[in-house]
Amino acid sequence: MARAGKEGTPVFLVGGKPEVLAQTEAKLRNQWNVNIVGSQDGYFKPEQRQALFERIHASGAQIVTVAMGSPKQEIFMRDCRLVHPDALYMGVGGTYDVFTGHVKRAPKIWQTLGLEWLYRLLSQPSRIKRQLRLLRYLRWHYTGNL
């Protein structure tokens, strides 16, 4: 984002709670002078997706960050690319929450070992059910059976 700010690259942010998104926008502008051309919190209805895709396209964004968690953000990015293919899409999960200080990062040792995901899973047990579904999907994807 620092480079995007230096170069004036247009950025569109999608996802997160409204207050977290607003803080993310403010911090990106203040810290790196990021050219944010639009944003949308993660609380929109499925029937609003197409209009959002059109907004992103009309904004001219060259970078679109999507913080909706997996697999929602990947599905969103795949579908949005059909309307606005000329952008770099980044699925950033809970990055907005960490960036604004709403969620604490894992201790350095967990980060160094590449286990930050496990720390988050253990510290937020509500995520376990979703991650188990992801593992079932991966098994199906690679083996063809559940």
UniProtKB/TrEMBL annotation:
Coiled-coil regions listed: none
InterPro entries the UniProt entry points to: WecG_TagA_CpsF
Keyword terms: Glycosyltransferase, Transferase
One annotated GO molecular function: N-acetylglucosaminyldiphosphoundecaprenol N-acetyl-beta-D-mannosaminyltransferase activity
Enzyme class, UniProt record, top EC level: transferase
EC number from the UniProt entry: 2.4.1.187
NCBIfam families from the UniProt entry: wecG_tagA_cpsF
The protein's name in its UniProt record: UDP-N-acetyl-D-mannosaminuronic acid transferase
